[in-house]
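User: I'm designing a mutation panel for Protein Wnt and want to avoid disrupting the core. Could you give me a predicted structure to guide residue selection? Please restate the sequence first so the numbering is unambiguous.

Assistant: Good idea. Sequence first, for numbering, then the predicted structure tokens:
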Amino acid sequence: PIPAKCLLTSVRVPWYLAKLSSVGSISEEETCEKLKGLIQRQVQMCKRNLEVMDSVRRGAQLAIEECQYQFRNRRWNCSTLDSLPVFGKVVTQGTREAAFVYAISSAGVAFAVTRACSSGELEKCGCDRTVHGVSPQGFQWSGCSDNIAYGVAFSQSFVDVRERSKGASSSRALMNLHNNEAGRKAILTHMRVECKCHGVSGSCEVKTCWRAVPPFRQVGHALKEKFDGATEVEPRRVGSSRALVPRNAQFKPHTDEDLVYLEPSPDFCEQDIRSGVLGTRGRTCNKTSKAIDGCELLCCGRGFHTAQVELAERCSCKFHWCCFVKCRQCQRLVELHTCR
Ligand SMILES: *[C@@H]1O[C@H](CO)[C@@H](O)[C@H](O)[C@H]1NC(C)=O
Ligand SMILES: *[C@@H]1O[C@H](CO)[C@@H](O)[C@H](O)[C@H]1NC(C)=O
């Protein structure tokens, strides 16, 4: 495995978005100048699209929360983001974890911008009105579908510009661009139709529908599956340009929707604060699971402590007319296992 130090740096790169997520409102052009970690082209975009920047910030927040949710039971739990030393060095390693972080970030930005468009918060965009009229299935399109095209285009220009400015031929830039796009594809392939019924007492005489983005949880879940099946790639000259191809020729080529990575990951077992790896000491594990959340794997074979803890729960809940529920507090003893 590669040293954790390299890994961390590569995972940290898109967290300029994380920094963005923690600033207050971005309402003046000067704020764009002060945002840490943005490159010059992004500062320009920020100034020209001030009203969109709050959605970018919200998208970054969504991405971080979703990453932590999806990885809550794994050794790397996506929490190496805050309070870590900043490495100035640009590293070329790109791991699976970095692939996921890039994908979920660009998806988060596309998602939040799209939502802001449909909710009427932004002057530059609104609903997608190209889907209208009566559908072949006989329902009426509402004429206000989620404008995913705008969200995706914004994410492409704002998020991808970092890679394009590096010269899109470095392996790492190719990897990031691919995974950024895979993140946005995860929204596009899960778009759905939502409807509302109108008519006497809930009958569905008239149905109006619109195209909507999926819940972000579903996007996170889809990308987590792509993470598990990610393809290790290497750069190869194809004609006059470079492309990433599977390292193992026996694997089927990846699609636009798959995640790709260049380097294997470290095992994340031991703490190395200077590198920002927290290790798994103290993590809660599942004694009976054979998967990565099980004590054996999560604790890297070091064993675990068991403690009895009291859990406060609501119990004996009764419904009172009308309308509230009254419960008692009960204490329950449970065993809690934590890694040594
Ligand atoms: C991730 O794991 C570390 C310990 O390794 C723990 O301190 C932290 O709270 C965890 N973060 C989340 C979001 O679960
Ligand atoms: C622990 O793992 C077992 C087996 O995978 C599972 O059935 C159980 O729900 C898990 N317990 C918790 C608290 O997650």
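For picking mutation sites, this is relevant: Strands lie at 140-141, 192-198, 206-212, 231-238, 241-246, 260-261, 284-285, 304-320, 324-339. The two ends are 22 Å apart (CA to CA).
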